[in-house]
Specification:
By secondary structure, the chain is mostly beta strands. It has one domain (about 45-185): Jelly Rolls. The protein is about 5% helix and about 40% strand. The protein has helices spanning about 30-40, 165-170; strands at about 1-5, 10-15, 20, 25, 45-55, 55-65, 70-75, 80-85, 90, 95-105, 110, 115-120, 125-135, 140-145, 180-185. The strands form 4 sheets. Strands 1-2-11-7-13-5 form a 6-stranded antiparallel beta sheet, with no helix packed on it. A 5-stranded antiparallel beta sheet has the order 10-8-12-6-14, with no helix packed on it. Strands 3-4 form a two-stranded antiparallel sheet. The radius of gyration is 16 Å and the shape is globular. The two termini are about 25 Å apart.
């Protein structure tokens, strides 16, 4: 697997080696040994999958405190704009974001460590999105940031009038209103 740092060095693009022939393709979507060697020794404990239609924006979400999660995300089918926002107080990239197009065809994955809010926008008719987490979901620890926070100025790659959000995501606060942020550790 090829690992490429993004403009926020802790957020990494991971590209597997894809073997193609007349039958189709094959690749290892995850190898604990290779992940430990090339990224970090992280033990993933939960896999999640969602299916969404064009225009759906999910996020920006994160888990607080002891329930914080690192994620390894990918798209099995379709196309999304995936976004990770640095919410580590004191970080040189605090309030900055990385946006990466993930598709079922490019097989890219994005590693998002603890201390980041995460979201994605569906740019295809449908998208199947999967992700591994290194901590279990804890409903009482969930938090988020408004998808349209003007200080972030995220370009989701979809016209605003075509976006579909959950009622909960429409009510998320701005980054400046959140007190439960992470501390940056050098």
């Amino acid at each position: 697997m090829k690992v490429t740092p993004t403009s926020i060095p802790d957020v990494l693009i991971i590209e597997p080696e894809v073997y193609r022939d007349s039958r189709g393709y094959f690749f290892e979507s995850f190898s604990q040994r290779e992940f430990d060697e090339k990224v970090a020794p992280i033990r993933f404990v939960q896999d999640n999958e969602s299916m969404s239609s064009y225009g759906v924006v999910r996020g920006l979400h994160f888990q607080m405190g002891e329930a914080a999660q690192s994620k390894l995300v990918r798209v099995v089918k379709g196309k999304v704009m995936d976004v990770a926002v640095d919410i580590r107080r004191g970080s040189p990239t605090f309030g900055k974001y990385v946006a990466v197009e993930l598709t079922g065809d490019n097989h890219r994955q994005l590693f998002i460590p603890r201390g980041f809010a995460h979201g994605f926008a569906v740019k295809s008719k449908r998208a199947v999105f999967t992700y591994k987490c290194d901590n279990f979901y804890a409903p009482g620890s969930e938090a988020g940031i408004a998808w349209n926070d003007p200080t972030l100025s995220i370009d989701w790659g979809i016209p605003q009038d075509e976006m579909i959000l959950s009622p909960k995501d429409m009510l998320l606060p701005l980054l400046e209103e959140i007190s439960c942020l992470f501390e940056y550790e050098k």
